[in-house]
Specification:
The chain is an alpha/beta fold. The protein has two domains: 37-46 and 315-521, MOFRL domain (glycerate kinase, domain 1, 3-Layer(aba) Sandwich), CATH 3.40.1480.10; 49-312, Glycerate kinase, MOFRL-like N-terminal domain (Rossmann fold, 3-Layer(aba) Sandwich), CATH 3.40.50. The chain has 21 helices and 15 strands. It has helices at residues 2-14, 18-29, 31-45, 49-56, 86-97, 112-118, 145-159, 175-178, 188-200, 205-214, 222-227, 260-269, 278-286, 314-327, 343-357, 366-375, 383-399, 424-438, 470-476, 481-486, 490-496; strands spanning 58-60, 63-66, 69-72, 77-82, 101-109, 132-137, 166-172, 231-237, 306-312, 331-339, 404-410, 446-451, 463-467, 503-504, 515-521. The chain has a six-stranded parallel sheet, with helices on both faces. A six-stranded mixed sheet has the order 10-11-15-12-13-14, with helices on both faces. A three-stranded antiparallel sheet has the order 1-2-3. The two termini are 21 Å apart. The chain binds adenosine-5'-triphosphate and (2R)-2,3-dihydroxypropanoic acid (DGY). (2R)-2,3-dihydroxypropanoic acid (DGY) is lined by residues 173-176, 205, 209, 239-240, 248-250.
Length: 530
């Protein structure tokens, strides 16, 4: 396969008849990368907001079944939502239970209706006669006055409910910025400054949202508290590793045990404790273990009226990808949905795994497995997941199972030093390409990394594909990989390489469960150890 790919690239670049000749071989040439793209599409398809919502809500007459519980619909339904994917969730919810819906308000990103319309995603838009009001805001993913207005409308709706009412809360990534309700006397500007400084200093989403929860009327369970005594059912599309309910969109329906020392420790870590506005000191000193920051301590049972259900996650996307891999004749192995850490280390991991899978001798050297295991903590992958993966790779080598499809997900990080255009998926693909290219024995592996939202950093690509021919291909086209990497310019690199054919460009997908990685590993060509 590697030879066919190499030949086709040669034809594509050098031969005067390159277009027609290349297209003659394109079917076999692209077999692995076509399958990698199909596996990625299946991952994204499996977590489309309307699909996950449909999967999680069951309607039998006036009964609504969700998360193993049953609720009676008696024209008592209200709906609120906030996040990048809630428009599609709301559209499907209205199709399913709209006849009982009294009123809804959702807070969604600025311009999203137009963008979804332009991408032909009409199924994610509300009907003209919808009972749900769509409010756009949070330009550039920052809480703004528009989002604050939406949050106020959502708070008003929730606060007016009675014990007969059922409130559906739709939550997805980006929800924190779309539901700003600064605890008085803090202003939106002051809260925005603190979160912006934290983010710029490199705070993790866990740290950021721990602080956000402490400063908000609605986060950290505040929304659920407002809706009391109504029954609350929150349907959550997770964009955080491990699906922690209290952190996704800062957990507006999840009771948070606020620990002031935890918040101060985070502010200290990023050297912000001494430059805080006085209003923030006031909010933090008043706060107690509670729902939101302004409410007095509540007993545990107040949470009884809330059901939180994760309806979509990276794990689900990987399971869908795995099923697609089987359909395509590949042997799937799911490594982990929690890959994080610097892209350098993550690329190294994939390089080592490919070397291990395709090692051309009967026994793989134990040092290789040891090096893989050592990397685990740096890239967020548990030892047992690595051991399980290594064992499966060993079995596949012994039994000659054909092409393996190694799947993983998560959200690695890039330390931005240059001024180029790129994203963590494209930079990871580029670094994995270097790893695969540097192998003496070419594994023939193809690697794909893509953001499930369809957008990788500030670029129009979701990610990129790569393989062991990357270095040769780049050199033959006069592209200096190191230069592009130093300048964090992976998008420009992949746009210039072979006319952009290695870019992954599904367009905006309307969902977001972080990133998906797929590495297709053909059996070693020198396999004579049977
Ligand atoms: N030139 C670049 N090269 C590599 N990575 C970049 C570059 N510019 C931005 N990034 C990375 O892209 C990420 C931001 O992009 P994006 O908006 O896709 O983030 P996200 O975390 O997927 O957002 P969300 O979860 O809200 O969808 C950051 O991790 C940032 O480090
Ligand atoms: O909105 C947020 O807080 C992030 O997207 C994590 O869920």
């Amino acid at each position: 396969m590697a030879q066919i790919i190499a030949l086709s690239r040669f034809l594509h670049l050098q031969h005067p008849l390159r277009v027609s000749l290349a297209s003659l071989c394109s079917r076999s040439m692209s077999s692995l990368d076509t399958r990698a793209r199909a596996v990625f599409s299946a991952a994204v398809e499996g977590v489309q907001p309307d699909i996950v919502l449909h999967r999680s809500l069951e309607r039998h007459g006036d009964k609504l079944l969700v998360g193993g519980q049953s609720f009676t619909l008696t024209n008592n339904l209200y709906l609120v939502g906030f996040g990048k994917a809630v428009l599609g969730m709301a559209a499907e919810a209205e199709r399913l239970v709209g006849d009982h819906l009294i009123k809804g308000v959702i807070s969604v990103p600025h311009g999203i209706q137009k963008t979804l319309h332009n991408h032909g995603k009409e199924n994610m838009l509300l009907e003209n006669n919808s009972r749900i009001t769509v409010m756009e805001g949070a330009k550039n993913n920052l809480p703004d006055a528009d989002a604050q207005k939406s949050a106020e409308c959502i708070r008003e709706l929730a606060s007016g409910l009675t014990e007969k009412d059922l409130l559906l809360v739709l939550i997805s990534g980006g929800g924190s910025a779309l539901l700003p309700a600064p605890a008085p006397p803090m202003s939106l500007q002051e809260k925005q400054d603190v979160t912006r400084k934290l983010a710029a200093a490199g705070a993790t989403i866990q740290e950021l949202n721990t602080v956000r929860r402490a400063l908000s009327l609605l986060k950290g369970g505040g929304l659920a508290q407002c809706a009391k005594p109504a029954q609350v059912v929150a349907l959550i599309l997770s964009d955080v590793i491990g699906d922690p309910l209290d952190l996704i969109a800062s957990g507006p329906t999840v009771r948070s045990d606020f620990k002031p020392e935890e918040v101060w420790a985070i502010l200290d870590r990023y050297k912000l404790s001494y430059s805080l506005p006085s209003s923030m000191n006031e909010v933090l000193s008043k706060a107690r273990p509670h729902y939101g920051s302004q409410v007095q301590e509540q007993p545990e049972e107040v949470q009884d009226h809330v059901l939180n259900v994760v309806i979509g996650s990276n794990t689900i996307a990987l399971e869908c990808a795995s099923r697609k891999a089987v359909e395509l004749g590949l042997r799937p192995i799911i490594l982990s949905p929690g890959v994080c850490g610097d892209v350098h280390s993550v690329a190294r991991l994939y390089g080592l795994l490919s070397r291990f899978a395709c090692f051309p001798e009967k026994e793989t050297p134990p040092e290789l497995a040891a090096e893989i295991l050592q990397l685990g903590p740096e890239v967020g992958v548990e030892s047992w997941d690595l051991c399980r993966t290594i064992n499966m790779l060993v079995e596949e080598r012994k039994e000659d199972w054909g092409v393996t499809c190694l799947l993983a997900g998560g959200e690695p990080t890039v330390q931005l030093k240059g001024k180029g255009r790129g994203g963590r998926n494209q930079e990871l693909a580029l670094r994995v390409g270097l790893e695969l290219s540097s192998d003496e024995v070419k594994s023939g592996a193809v690697f794909l990394s893509g953001g499930t939202d369809g957008q990788d950093g500030p670029t129009e690509a979701a990610g990129a594909l790569t393989d062991g021919e990357l270095m040769k291909e780049a050199m033959s086209q006069g592209l200096d990989i190191d230069g592009f990497l130093t300048n964090n310019d992976s998008f420009t690199f992949f746009s210039q390489l072979s006319e952009g054919q290695w870019l992954l460009k599904p367009g905006l997908t309307g969902t977001n469960v972080m990133d998906v990685h797929a590495m297709l590993l053909p059996p070693s060509p020198q396999r004579d150890f049977q």
